[in-house]
Amino acid sequence: MLGKGECVMAIHVELPRKTEDELRSLWGDLPQAALESLLIESYRTRKISVGYLAKVLGMGVIEADAWLKTRGIPLNYTVEDLQADSETLDRLFGGIK
């Protein structure tokens, strides 16, 4: 969740009542569903990190990873990320085998 004193953006969406009712029956809390969908798409397209997603949702990174997994969203971790992490570990620990 947002910290005290942080800016809050509100988005207004107009839907026909029938559409709202149908969506609410599927998703429940529509503002929360919209927020989560925006965060998921932002993470999926690498616009935000899992750490940022976790902060907005008020959870830890490990919890956010699990939250994404339950929604079928894979971890954004590329071969390049693995290589960079491997190089960092080699630099820090001198290539311990």
Describe how the helices and strands are arranged:
Blueprint: H1 17-27, H2 30-44, H3 50-57, H4 61-70, H5 79-93
Notes on the structure:
It contains five helices and no strands. The termini are far apart. It has helices at 17-27, 30-44, 50-57, 61-70, 79-93. The chain is mainly alpha-helical and 97 residues long.
Features:
mainly alpha, elongated, 97 residues
Number of strands: 0
Low-confidence stretches: none
Terminal-residue CA separation? 41 Å
Helix/strand order, N-terminal first: HHHHH
What does the overall shape look like?
Answer: elongated
Largest sheet: none
Strand content: under 5%
Backbone structural class: mainly alpha
Structure summary:
With 97 residues, the protein is mostly helical. The protein has helices at residues 17-27, 30-44, 50-57, 61-70, 79-93. Helix 3 (50-57) crosses helix 4.
